[in-house]
Amino acid sequence: MKADQVLFEDWHPVAALEDVLPSRQYQTRLLGRTVKYNVRPDGDIEAAWTDEGIDRQMLARRKYGALWLSFAEAPRDLFPVPEFAESDRRVVSAGSTRVNVSGLRAIENFLDMAHFPFVHTDILGAEPMTEVLPYNVVINEELDEVIATECRFAQPKASATAVEPIETQYTYRVTRPNIAILYKTCPPAPERWDVLCLFVQPVDEDWCIAHTIMCYVDDVNSDEQLRRFQQTIFGQDLMILINQVPKRLPLAASRENPVRADVLATAYRRWLRESDLHYGAIRD
């Protein structure tokens, strides 16, 4: 379980910051363990997990619009997302949704462009324009990330700011087994990217909580309008996710039947397989 120990010693999201109120006690589950946290009057966060009836302290930090916890004494650094430091961006949570699949399943669905015209009809895609055009995927060994670039898709309503159909440009980053970041065309500022983060909390091997954080350039829509648009998208994905069988993600190469549209998902599975990850996966 070496790779799973690395997972245990990393940072994990447990809430959107805007949902964490001071002087309240919160309880959730993370990697099959009960965790508790609260914000003290001085603003510091107290967090602990229960191990054989004993509460053990956890590290906590606020970053990228989310609250992160770690079981480790010295967890690895969080991945960089410099756009969150840009003062003119809106950081808005699109909600946290509990889903009966492993976190790995939720991430793979997020990476799938082929379903846009069929699941997100007249928003992120529409028939007959169903083709996923060729794009590039690399596993960056230095960063230990899966990165897909030059992704393109014709979309009737690419975002809350879109006023007409456009060909949307995408870049995907998978920075951790349960973390994916999407950079997409920003209609009001075409020279920049909107950033959509799927921070998945692995509750246990068959359940997860998807925390969706938007980091957008948008001075037109209200927070509620941004939230409503993204929740519509996730609500459509939810119907796909809850019907996934099996709940965990198969990683064996023999279980894959890739086509060109699946290049990113195939690379993601290979990256997980080579890391020897077991938690939330089926390896045989």
TrEMBL record:
Enzyme category, top tier: oxidoreductase
Top-level taxon: Bacteria
A GO MF term: methyltransferase activity
InterPro entries: Cholesterol_7-desaturase, VanA_C_cat
Domain spans labelled Vanillate O-demethylase oxygenase-like C-terminal catalytic: 105-274
EC number: 1.14.13.128
Keywords for this protein: Methyltransferase, Oxidoreductase, Transferase
GO biological process, one term: methylation
Protein name, per record: Putative methylxanthine N7-demethylase NdmC
Organism: Cupriavidus taiwanensis
